[in-house]
Amino acid sequence: MQGQEYPVILVHGFGGNKEGWIAQYGPLSEEFQVVRFDNRNGGGSDRPNEPLTVEILADDVRGLMDYLKIEKAHIIGWSLGGIIVQKFALKYPSRLDKLILINTVMGAPNEQGVELLKKNMIEELELRKQDPEEDFWRGARLGFYLKFRKEMKANPKKKFYGLWSVEDLIKNSIKDLPTTQDIINQSNALFKTITLNDLSKIKNPTLLLAASHDRLTSSNTMAEMHKVIPNSTLEIIDKAGHSSPHSKAPEINKIIINFLKN
Questions:
Q1: Comparing C-alpha atoms, which of 34, 33, 91, 23 is closest to residue 57?
Q2: E strands along the chain, which residues?
Q3: Lowest-confidence range among 31-45, 102-116, 187-201, 221-235?
Q4: Exposed, middle or buried by CB within 10 Å (0-12, 13-18, 19+), for 67?
Q5: Four-residue CA torsion sign, 168, 176, 51, 198
Q6: Which pTM was predicted?
Q7: CATH classification code of 7-261
Q8: What residue ranges do the domains of the chain occupy?
Q9: Please, which of 14, 17, 173, 234 could form a disulfide with 226 given CB 3.0 to 4.6 Å?
Q10: Chain CA centroid to CA 193, Å
């Protein structure tokens, strides 16, 4: 937890950890009291050997708020974190002020989709153990727009926007690695349990941040979500992939701060 003023909670995605918010944690903490944490079966959190559901993970957010004595907060979710926050908004609307969904969906459309994501994540995990740099660049094809990726490769030590370098991202990716069983347990939360009809019940002011070249969570899907969430705004970040919070950090941070403050 860092900063003062109104609380903002950051919820990370599948197989990740709280360090994934490297480009948001500092800048947002200049305006808010920012809380980032590791999801269950990830990072430094507990690793119970049981299948997770998005409802369990949403309850974990509420439990964290109770522990920190935070009655109400803005909450930001990225990828699986966005699914978790959607469920939180449906279960605990009175504990939520504004909601921000970044590069997310309502869950994998079918069992085959979940199995594919799980299989890919397990393969990436094994590669990360053996060759973290190779694993990073493999994932970067989905995370970063081609032109930006070339700039990253040319200078992996460069501090982009003064916030992060490729070396930082690689180092963070191997911190508190999940096990294969952790990935299997987390993947269960990817099943589509939220519908468009559910989203129509979210009344909190909502910002959806999509990326133009995201091949994991399509901007078209987020546009459909925007249509049914009553009090929502959609922003599509141009020339960005699933890792737009890194590659487009200044733009995204400015949009987030403006939305939360206005």
A1: 91
A2: 7-11, 33-36, 73-78, 96-102, 206-211, 232-237
A3: 102-116
A4: exposed
A5: negative
A6: 0.96
A7: 3.40.50.1820
A8: 7-261
A9: 234
A10: 18
